[in-house]
Specification:
This protein is 36% helix and 27% strand. By secondary structure, the chain is an alpha+beta fold. The protein has two domains: 107 residues, Archaeosine Trna-guanine Transglycosylase, Chain: A, domain 4 (Roll); 85 residues, Methane Monooxygenase Hydroxylase, Chain G, domain 1. A hairpin with a 5-residue loop joins strand 5 and strand 6. InterPro entries: Lon_prtase_N, Lon_prtase_N_sf, PUA-like_sf. Pfam families: LON_substr_bdg.
Length: 216
Amino acid sequence: MPQLRLFPLHIVLFPGMPLGLHIFEERYKQLINECLRDGEPFGVVAIRRGSEVGDPAPDLFDVGTAAHILQVEPLDEGRMNIVGVGQARFRIEHLYTDRPYLYADVEYLHLRDQRDPSLPALMNRVGLLLHRYLDVLRQADLVKGGGHELPGDPVSLAYLAAYVLQIPDEQKQVLVEENSLPALLHRLADMYRRELPLVQVLLSPPPHEPMPFSEN
């Protein structure tokens, strides 16, 4: 059974999506250096309860995503900034605590039903909602650039939509744990229909108020 070194975080990483980290704890300096030495990914798994810093054994969710290291910026005292990208999802089968960092036996997960006949219609629905959502974020200067060209394959589109959506990590965890591609796209469409009006209200500019006149 494959093993992964684990990096618990208060984020949910999706396959194909970027990850930027500042590495400063000694245990994670060791973890990243070992991954670089061995040419291996590390596993990003969301914390259910506990802290990212100083907590030797936080309570973790069972499903996470392996991260491939793309860039490393060395800093003083062994610290570093790294850029990575999500790869395959995994489920923790057995967790080990006998190293400075956590590691685990894992089972890699695959999305089912990738040739389901409902996928073109689901892609179109999610794509339209994602375009509208990105337009709202861009108008609030939360996304840079002009129009966004969306991925042409359903897996990449689904994980991009999950990455962009501004929802709590507990809800994102539900998405990363979904094993059926049509079910994932259905969930995303429902979430975007729910979240889009809220984001439009929250990020819309305040109404113009007339300047008050002095009573004199």
